[in-house]
UniProtKB/TrEMBL annotation:
Its membrane topology: Multi-pass membrane protein
Keywords on record: ATP-binding, Cell membrane, Membrane, Nucleotide-binding, Transmembrane, Transmembrane helix, Transport
Name assigned to this protein: ABC transporter ATP-binding protein
Superkingdom in the source lineage: Bacteria
Domain ABC transmembrane type-1 residues, every copy: 21-319
PANTHER family hit by this protein: ATP-BINDING CASSETTE SUB-FAMILY B MEMBER 10, MITOCHONDRIAL, ATP-DEPENDENT PERMEASE MDL1, MITOCHONDRIAL
Native source species: Pedobacter cryotolerans
Membrane-spanning residues: 21-44, 64-93, 151-170, 176-194, 258-278, 298-317
All copies of domain ABC transporter, residue ranges: 351-586
GO molecular function: ABC-type oligopeptide transporter activity; ATP binding; ATP hydrolysis activity
PROSITE patterns: ABC_TM1F (PS50929), ABC_TRANSPORTER_1 (PS00211), ABC_TRANSPORTER_2 (PS50893)
Localization per Swiss-Prot or TrEMBL: Cell membrane
GO cellular component: plasma membrane
Length: 594
């Protein structure tokens, strides 16, 4: 429960919705209860008037009595109608305030979670899977909404109705009230027991359902593999098995629910019989009127609702507490990377690594070991090395996706940790190794880093990334949709759109993380040629595997197992006859063989 205290700030924010809401609950209950004594009086009126009417059988007066009788009955009928209408009106107000408030809180909470997620660093997104992140921002928030809206509304409603009805019953007749309420504790126990059962089964069904949807989603994403390995029949079998288990669980839930309602009605029936029997005795004894019996039957029916609600509301609160606990776990996480400097100086593009070491916290892999190098503004620097040697990690450190464990990274002579991160990152054009494009138009994908888009800029960036001709060949040209609702680009086209996205920013520092691997050598030369012009006077860092890509670099850094083993220009490194030369010779051999 304590986890739900987090939401109190929202209750405070929406106090002018919740306070009137609770007042409307009380008013609607008063009018709900009021119908019982009114019906009781009407009942008494009927029994009394019928006997008077019969007394005047055969007399003219009988007509007058009939008229009075029917006018009174009409009055009571109209009164009950008015009571119902007023109650309905306040029920409307109640929902309009409390349920509306719950929607506002849901909206605020979702925004709070999303904004917080965005502040957290890359490591957080690596540690937690996307499904979990999404669930906390959607499913869990929805469960919390059920607490701030329906649960609070029904708890107040139930509690007030419960005590008011019982008070009214005891004030009419203690003995009758005692007997009429006798089956109630049994009903409470049954509701509690059945509710726990329903809960367990529903949770199981929910789990099964998400397993089933993940299964379907994954299999359809990998449909090409399934078809090429002819595994359709086997996949169908697994689906049927999963689906069957979902069906079995659902059916067992239906059975419990089917038994619950008749059991509940049976107990209400017993309570009614007891009321009529004991009430009948009291009427004969003259302690109550027949109208009181009718009144009691209404009370019993009014009480059934709160008792059955009890279980449901308890579940809502328990679920909301569990969900809020999960949400709080993420909300209380502080970003590993923070930047408090508000200054926004121009970035020149000088980068210096001084004895930098870095270990990935999750795996304990020491990816960078005591690395030192200098990149001067305007230089074209290449990083090369075997797979897993730490090249991408180096790029991540330059982007400050992670902080170093020891050593210093300096940008234009200032320590990276102390400079305004948003300003710095906005000056970097980064093309990651794994291309990611949004399900949006090509134009919006290229212009992603800009707040305002001009047609000319997008086209120039596409031309510089050597993807313009491919784009204009599509029917919709730059408006072509990508992703699930649109076309699928080839690997090389994706890489070039991603390059255009980095180039359009006119960055001061450009980082290419092995993003020319799916591009043929001729196109690669075209892109590198364009880069030579665009990046004149600006810093370019190119991570690559092909020596042909990087041979013109001002400086080549050779990494191995997280350490710099060689550094220099292409010719200097060839003269050394070390690891770089070995790589060069191997690639020459491969090309000749090819
Ligand atoms: N997010 C991560 N969490 C934990 N360990 C990681 C992470 N990313 C990389 N590593 C590990 O760090 C080491 C260096 O990886 P990195 O991706 O920097 O290599 P790379 O030189 O870019 O390789 P490749 O050429 O294959 O892209 C590897 O051993 C890798 O397993």
């Amino acid at each position: 429960m304590k986890h739900l205290f987090f939401l109190n700030k929202y209750f405070y924010k929406y106090k002018w919705r919740i306070i009137p809401g609770l007042i409307f609950v009380i008013i609607s209950i008063i009018f709900q209860i009021l119908q019982a004594p009114v019906v009781g009086h009407a009942f008494n009126l009927i029994t009394e008037n019928i006997s008077i009417y019969q007394l005047f059988d055969g007399f003219d007066r009988q007509e007058v009595i009939y008229n009075i009788f029917s006018t009174n009955l009409f009055f009571f009928g109209a009164l009950i109608l008015v009571i119902y209408m007023i109650r309905g009106l306040f029920l409307f107000f109640m929902r309009q305030t409390i349920i509306l408030m719950s929607r506002h809180i849901e909206y605020d909470l979702k925004n709070e979670i999303y904004a917080h997620y965005q502040k957290l660093s890359l490591g957080f997104f690596r540690r937690n899977n996307t499904g979990d992140l999404m669930n906390r921002a959607t499913e869990d928030v929805n469960r919390v909404r059920m607490y701030v809206g329906p649960a609070i509304m029904y708890t107040t409603n139930t509690t007030i109705l419960f005590f008011t009805a019982i008070f009214f019953m005891f004030s009419v007749n203690v003995k009758l009230a005692f007997y009429a309420l006798l089956p109630l504790p049994i009903l409470v126990v049954i509701v509690y027991y059945v509710n726990t059962l329903i809960n367990q089964k529903s949770e199981k069904i929910q789990e099964q359902l998400s397993r089933l949807s993940s299964f379907v989603q994954e299999r359809f994403s990998g449909i090409r593999v399934i078809k090429s390995y002819v595994r359709e029949a086997q996949t169908q079998e697994v689906f049927e098995e999963e689906s069957n288990s979902y069906k079995t669980n659902s059916m067992s839930l239906v059975k419990v629910q089917a038994l619950f309602y008749p059991a509940m009605l049976l107990l209400v029936g017993i309570s009614t019989i007891l009321t009529i029997y004991i009430g009948g005795e009291q009427v004969i004894a003259g302690t109550i009127t027949a109208g009181n019996i009718a009144e009691f039957i209404i009370y019993i029916n009014l009480l059934t609702f709160p008792v059955t609600m009890l279980g449901w509301v308890t579940t809502l609160i328990q679920r909301a507490a569990a969900s809020q606990k999960r949400i709080n776990e993420f909300l209380k996480l502080q970003p590993d990377i923070t930047s408090n400097n508000v200054e926004k100086p121009e970035i020149e593009g000088n980068i210096s690594f001084k004895n930098v070491s870095f270990t990935y916290p999750d795996t304990g892999i020491e990816a960078i070991k005591n690395v030192s190098f200098e990149i001067k503004k305007g230089q074209f620097v290449a990083i090369i090395g075997r797979t897993g040697s730490g090249k991408s990690t180096l790029a991540n450190l330059i982007m400050r996706m992670y902080d170093t464990d020891s050593g210093k990274i300096e940008i234009d002579g200032k320590e990276l940790r102390n400079i305004n991160l948003n300003n710095y990152r906005s000056k970097i054009g980064f093309v990651p190794q794994e291309v990611f494009l949004f399900s949006d138009t090509i134009k919006n994908n290229i212009a992603f880093g800009l707040s305002e888009i001009s047609e000319g800029q997008v086209e120039t960036a596409a031309k510089n990334a050597a993807v313009y001709n491919n784009i204009v060949d599509f029917d919709q040209k730059f408006e072509t949709m990508l992703g699930e609702r649109g076309i699928t680009l080839s690997g090389g086209q994706k890489q070039r759109v991603s390059i255009a996205r980095a180039l359009i920013k006119e960055p001061k520092i450009l980082i290419f993380d092995d993003c020319l691997s799916a591009v043929d050598t001729k196109t690669e030369e075209e892109i590198l040629g364009n880069l030579g012009t665009i990046m004149k006077g600006k810093t370019s860092i190119l991570i690559a595997h092909r020596i042909s890509t990087i041979k013109n670099a001002d400086q080549i850094i050779v990494l191995d197992n997280g350490e710099i083993i060689e550094k220099g220009t292409h010719n200097e490194l060839l003269n050394k006859g070390g690891a770089y030369t070995e790589m060069f010779n191997n690639q020459l051999l491969e090309e000749e063989n090819a």
